[in-house]
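Obj: model holo form, ligand = magnesium ion.
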Amino acid sequence: MNVLGLNDPKLGEVVVSEQELQSRISQLGKELEADYADRPPLLVGVLKGAFMFMTDLARAVGLPVELDFMAVASYGSATKTSGIVRMVKDLDLDISGRHVVVVEDIVDSGLTLSFLKRNLLSREPASLEVCALLVKEGLQKAKLDLKYVGFKIPPTFVVGYGLDVDEKYRNLPMICTYKA
Ligand code: IMP
Ligand code: MG
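Output (holo structure tokens):
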């Protein structure tokens, strides 16, 4: 296939098209808008993977939201998490008493998200929910309580729309499989 003018043999099929992303994200925006109408939330984007989802989602929510970002890294190979997560960039804002929605790109084993939830809950937000664009089916060890999910996808490695392999492919407008 040919994406962005590249004929890249490592890219496989399209898992979620640009059109599907945009229409699902506008639905998620409407859901958040209804659920948070009386208490505009603080959206917390998890860098770098969620940067593109965050910008589209934020524009789809017709509320005066606030935005902040944090970055975590997990040790491991390019396509597998080790489960050891550390914070690389903390939030700028104080979240105590705030209604927080964590905006994540993808939940694979769920280890990154459990780390994040534990960390954020210790700061005593008024509420904490998760909005994950993608969830890989059947891999999460712990129960994660994902309130908002864009798409459930098969447990294969994917790239695009923020997701990378060694920092590449983040700017693809769709989600594709990647052949390691
Ligand atoms: P988890 O801790 O196993 O749930 O992995 C979560 C993190 O690993 C995500 O936030 C991504 O940064 C990365 N990740 C997991 N699966 C993929 C994938 O298929 N493509 C790109 N990055 C992934
Ligand atoms: Mg990554």
